[in-house]
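Entry type: protein chain
Record version: 2
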Amino acid sequence: MSTLTSLAILLSVSTSTQHAAPEISEPVKEGLSESARNGNLRVLQLWSTDSARFLREWAQPTPPNLTIDSKVRRNKPIEQFIIIGGCQANVAGNCDLSGVTTMTDPAGEVYGETLTFKAWDNLPKPSGNVLSLSPMGTGLRVEDGEKLGTYRIRLSITDNVAKITATTEVEILVVEAQE
C-alpha cells in the first residue's frame, strides 16, 4: 500500500510564527482551491518538496515569499503545510482546531488512511489579522508500483469553538522519477 509520511510531521517551526493575512477568497464552487473561508476561519493548504526551504521562507519578514509545489517525482516526498487564521478563542483565549485529510489516487480511489489530527491544539489565538503555520501536516510519497497521475488531497479544518469547518482541496501531480 502507500507510504504516507506519517501525520504529525512535527515541523521545526514555532506555532507562534505569524504573518499578516493576505486576502483569502471563498473557495471556487466548482473546482479546487488551496484556500477556504467559513465565517472568520481561514485555511490555506500548501505543499512543498523542500520543507526546509519552505520553513526558512516562512520565517522571513511579512509577507513571506513561499516556494510551493504541485508536482513531485515518484519515490520523492512532498509535504503539506497548513496555514490558519481567524479562529474563535475559548474563554481561556485559546483556539481549538481539528483537521481531517483524505487523499484519492488518479483512479479516484481512497489512497492511504483518513488522517484526523489537532491542527491548533488549545494554543493561544493568533493576534490581530494574522495567519499562523499549524505544527501539523502530512506528506505523500508514491512508491514503485503505485499509480502515477493526479492525486487529490482534501483538507477540512474545524474550529471546535465556533463550530464551523473550512475545506480546501488541491491536486498533486506525481510523475515518473526519470521524467
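Comment: DSSP finds one helix and eleven strands in the chain.
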